[in-house]
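Give me the fold.
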Amino acid sequence: MVGNFFRVVCPFLFELDTVAWFALHPDRHSRMTLDRIRETTQVMIDVYRHGDNVQIQPIKAWRRQSPTMFLPHRERDGQFQPITDSSDATRLQASLELEHLHRQPLLDYWDRLFQDASRALSEQDDDCIADLQEQVLQVMISRDSQILELARRYLSLEDLLGIRSRLVGSGYIGGKATGMLIARNLLLKDAPELWQHWLEPHDSSYLGTDTYYAFLVHNGLWPAIMRQRSEAGYLSEAPALRDSILAGGFPDEIRAELERLLDHYGQYPILVRSSSLQEDGFGNAFAGKYESVFLVNQGSPEQRLAALQDAIRQVYASSMSEDALHYRRQRGLDQREEPMALLIQRVNGRFHGRYYLPDAAGVGVSRNTFAWDSTMDPKAGMVRLVMGLGTRAVDRIEGDHACVMALDQPLRQPFRSPDEGYRFSQHLVDLLDLEDGILDTRPLSQVLENAADLPVSHLAEVDRAATTRAEQIGLKGPVWRLTFRPLVQQSSFIARLSSLLKTLEAGYRHPVDVEFTLHLNQQGDPSFNLVQCRPLATVGETGPVNLPDNIPGEKLLFRTEGHFMGGNINLTLRRVIRVDSSVYSQLSTSERYEVARLVGEQVRSAGTPTMLIGPGRWGTSSPELGVPVRFADIAGIAALVEVSENAGHMVPDLSYGSHFFQDLVETGIAYVALFPENDDCRYYPDGLEKDSTPGSESPSPEAAVRVHNLSGGPLQLQGDIDRQELVCYFTD
């Protein structure tokens, strides 16, 4: 970083046509740092002191030359004169070398710090160990006081030396890597005799934040970064900077370390994940804002290195995505430093012919704020579970469904019949295709045909009726349905996950959100590979809410039992933006994207507490399933309502634990799913029409977006988390 400083500052001073000098202690820096400074500066002079004598020797003088310029110079009568006698110069040099003979080899601060740490551990110097642990935490783990408090308890100096041994470059390892490491150590410290068996060993490497800075400096991007950090350039400079990052190269010393990293992983698939300085902290999850890239890691060493460098550039560039920039600005983080570290992990799983995938993966949360039954305990937690890669657990799935379980009642599902449960189960599996070299999605039936050794009997049940129908038309059976009931009924999965979440919540002193993969033994008993842990973003409870008993029919907008999220809700709403499903269902795909744009315009101009109501899923990437808005366009609303529209096959899906869910809870947006076809739901949208802005009579995007300014009085939205009841009604 000292070398990077000179590479940035020297050209800047040159542009200013000014002169500055810096003094360096050469024995406090590595040879690589000194070489980088020499390469950049215009003038470099070595200064030596021998007794009372001071000697200087110019090492570099840009565009200057004379026969004696680069000789040693000795001070005489207030001036430095060249030593033209070679014998005199040789004797002086010999005495200087003798004086420096017992000095340590050239090491910078970073290497000296870890050398001291290693020595303190070997000498069992407890006072020195505590001091060095604090120093290392401050420069490698975090600046956040809450995260540092956790790290002091759960990351020993020996742990920190282990992290250093797997770090490319220097600097912080970032929030995602820190959260994963703290969580693992927390479990192992709490019950080592259990978690040494239940927890899979991790195989992670890290690219420090200084590597990100070195990449920017190496590619001459520091001036562009400075322009982008200004108020005027925050959004406008980002696209060009993102393109420049994608086209950038790596310093030779970083390339060499990446080659060694790939040698370690062999040809196992790896995952390159963002781990920025602010990521996964208290209050700022950055869920889904930065990219993660799966690499099948196949081919020659040169091909694998090129793919890894592309993946790193892709994650670096995602820090300049519009969604990430809006997220930072909405939280007042736009002027704070956000260097990007990376977490590189071996993908947990097995080879199944051309496919590679874990047995199962999931997202677990220690607080279930979306309980759909009044008998469920929110403190018991919830899990969102899928077969295959966890991408389907953390992303909002289009046209498919993960299995969501309340951990105190894992077999209780919000479905009216087994057929409905099968329909809303997982049918597609995310995996790595080693032949095509990509992350792919395949139908479960196709995966089972090509990977007969998958432990499907421990995860799924046979749909006997569907199997009979398949056999009647000549298809091979059986037909499996991913209900995960065998995992719940025949293994210790629920007990272990509940223990994991309770232990982590107690250690964090805050609800937590974890991502994991499962590895099943031959009996179907699971071990966990914990890949992420962060404080769970929760919508704050407002205290007890007294729901009105009798609301006149003309005053009621909707009422539902369950299917809402946000704790106890008590909101006064003065504006409603509603997408009319009867019009929306008649629009083309391009017109539906225009609806999304119009909704974003209305939200940005609202200026008052607003509720958004629409058919199916908000934020979907498939317009046939709902309204394809970006979260950044609707982040200013107070409440979001998704309405089931059976005619258009548009069904609400909060996707608890998904990145969209994280966005909702972090911004404090209350969520409601309405199923008017169910007996426990009432919805009367016609009550809004008296306050509606006039729209076009023919089907059009403008006609689909209805704005209700509620001139007759605001709406009150109230929810009781204990009774699992929510009501929205007009006030006088």
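The longest strand covers residues 526-535.
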